[in-house]
């Protein structure tokens, strides 16, 4: 399961638009071999999931 | 005609003058610069950094993720300022930067962004398609300090069917970034 999919499994109300450049959640990959990570989270209703929730 | 100041290899500076109002600077090796007739600061083109690079291999990405676009082939890089998909110019000033991506996936949505110093600086077109391919473009002018400032190209895409079918497509150099100095600091 990808990181966006994990987040959506926690908050089922989220859509792709929330992860887009005009959304409030930025999942980023710097193409440096370190993979996807949460670069920015500013969603007004849902707090950022913890590492444990995303594990 | 023009008034000309010449740096000769024998007599040092020489000059010839007329009343044309045009000023030229000449080097002993034959280079000639005519000072432009403009109001304010006139800029003379010299070692003004310019680059163009494109992605040469398809890049598979995770749906819903913003990914640094790997630009593995340089078309030109006049001042050797482009490396590791990053442009770090060595002259301070205002730069025109352009970018484009082509994303492919089922019911794909895509958007390209220019990042300055690791942060999103400007977002390009945000488009969806029921077909397999979406192009997104971005263009801006931004200030770079000529030492530490750099720009990179990032692309976002999502699809109703996620990776590995979601890719940035290299065919036809459809993922690229280019730019040049348009005005000094």
Write the layout of secondary structure elements.
The complex is a heterodimer of chains A (55) and B (185).
Chain A: H1 3-10, H2 16-19, E1 25-29, E2 37-41, H3 51-54
Antiparallel strand pairs in A: 1-2
Chain B: E1 3-7, E2 13-16, E3 23-27, E4 32-34, E5 50-54, E6 59-60, E7 65-68, E8 73-77, E9 82-83, E10 86-87, E11 93-104, E12 109-116, E13 119-128, E14 133-144, E15 151-158, E16 167-168, E17 176-184
Parallel strand pairs in B: 1-3
Antiparallel strand pairs in B: 1-2, 3-4, 5-8, 5-17, 6-16, 7-15, 9-10, 11-14, 11-16, 11-17, 12-13, 12-15
Query: Number of DSSP helices of chain B?
Result: 0
Identify the most extensive interface between protein chains: A-B, 18 and 23 residues
The biggest sheet of chain B, with number of strands, parallel, antiparallel or mixed sense and barrel status, is: 7 strands, antiparallel
State Rg of chain A: 11 Å
Shape of chain A: globular
Oligomer description? heterodimer
N- to C-terminal distance of chain A: 11 Å
- Which sequence of SSEs, written as H and E, runs from N to C of chain B? EEEEEEEEEEEEEEEEE
Strands across the major sheet of chain A, in which order? Answer: 1-2
What is the share of helical residues of chain A? 25-40%
Secondary structure category of chain B: mainly beta
Main sheet makeup of chain A: 2 strands, antiparallel
Task: Give the mean pLDDT of chain B.
Answer: 89
Instruction: Give the DSSP E fraction of chain B (strand runs of 2 or more residues).
Output: over 45%
* Range of helix content of chain B: under 10%
Number of separate strands of chain A = 2
Strand content of chain A: 15-25%
Residue ranges of chain B: pLDDT <50 for 5 or more in a row? none
Mean pLDDT reading of chain A: 95
- How widely separated are the two ends of chain B? 31 Å
Helix-strand pattern of chain A, N to C? HHEEH
């Amino acid at each position: 399961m990808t990181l966006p999919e994990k987040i959506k499994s926690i908050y089922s109300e989220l859509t792709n638009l929330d992860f887009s450049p005009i959304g409030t959640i930025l999942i980023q990959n710097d193409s440096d071999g370190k993979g996807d990570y949460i670069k920015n989270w500013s969603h007004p209703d849902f707090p950022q999931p913890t590492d444990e929730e995303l594990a | 005609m023009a008034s000309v100041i010449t740096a000769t290899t024998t007599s040092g500076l020489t000059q010839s003058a007329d009343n044309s109002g045009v000023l030229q600077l000449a080097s002993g090796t034959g280079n000639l610069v005519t000072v432009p007739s403009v109001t304010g600061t006139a800029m003379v083109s010299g070692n003004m950094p310019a680059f163009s690079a494109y992605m040469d291999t398809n890049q598979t990405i995770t749906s819903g993720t913003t990914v640094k676009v790997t630009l593995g082939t340089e078309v030109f890089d006049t001042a050797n300022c482009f490396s590791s998909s990053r442009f770090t110019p060595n002259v301070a000033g205002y730069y025109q930067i352009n970018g484009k991506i082509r994303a492919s996936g089922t019911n794909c949505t895509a958007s390209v962004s220019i990042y300055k110093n690791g942060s999103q600086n400007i977002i390009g077109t945000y488009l969806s398609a029921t077909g397999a391919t979406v192009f997104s473009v971005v263009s801006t002018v931004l200030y770079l300090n000529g030492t530490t400032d750099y720009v990179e190209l990032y692309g976002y895409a999502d699809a109703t069917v996620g990776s590995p079918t979601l890719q940035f497509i290299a065919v036809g150099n459809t993922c690229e970034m280019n730019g040049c100095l348009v005005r000094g600091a």
